[in-house]
Amino acid sequence: MMARFTDPEQMYPASPGKRLFARIIDSILPLGGAAALAVPLLSEASDHISDRIDAIERAGVNETVWLIDGTTGGYLAMVLGVFLGVGLLFEVLPVALWGTTLGKAMLGLKVLDMERQEPPSFGRAINRWLVYNLLSLVLVGIVNMILAVRDQPWRQGWHDKAAHTFVAGKGGPPAAAADPVGPAQ
């Protein structure tokens, strides 16, 4: 059973603004690492595709040139690998060990298991991270964040719901949760 907002030891959901700012901070390292590798590979990929097109034109044949082939697919895999590796190192491990990341720590936020009110297990931390990033890859992340802001009373995104976690902030219960609805059972 989930802890009730009337429990004095209860941690309360963090504000949406702090969560967004923490996410922006936490995104800098994985995106920066991926970009640092992608920028030099982009010119190599462009040269590779141009060379393929030139070779096909010289041969006088009608052939499709794919943007993702054995060469450019390898480049994409390297960039994605850096993004995932840095994300695992700077988000999954800190959340599983301490319940926080660099951005969340800067803003006094923690990721907690819904029932135990402790940092999530490694499995739940990786589940949370994978759901968030998979949703972001398909641009559903924006909808996920909007739903997290509107979700009451825990302000959970789909990644939090999948891992059974929430992001806690300092202070009292959110305004909507201060007056419980209906009798306690």
From TrEMBL:
Keywords from the UniProt entry: Cell membrane, Membrane, Transmembrane, Transmembrane helix
The keyword Membrane is annotated on this UniProt entry: yes
Domain of life assignment: Bacteria
Major site of localization recorded for this protein: membrane
RDD domain boundaries: 14-163
Ranges that cross the membrane: 20-42, 75-99, 129-149
InterPro entries linked: Pra-immunoreactive, RDD
One Pfam entry name: RDD
Membrane topology: Multi-pass membrane protein
Name of the protein: RDD family protein
Annotated source species: Streptomyces mimosae
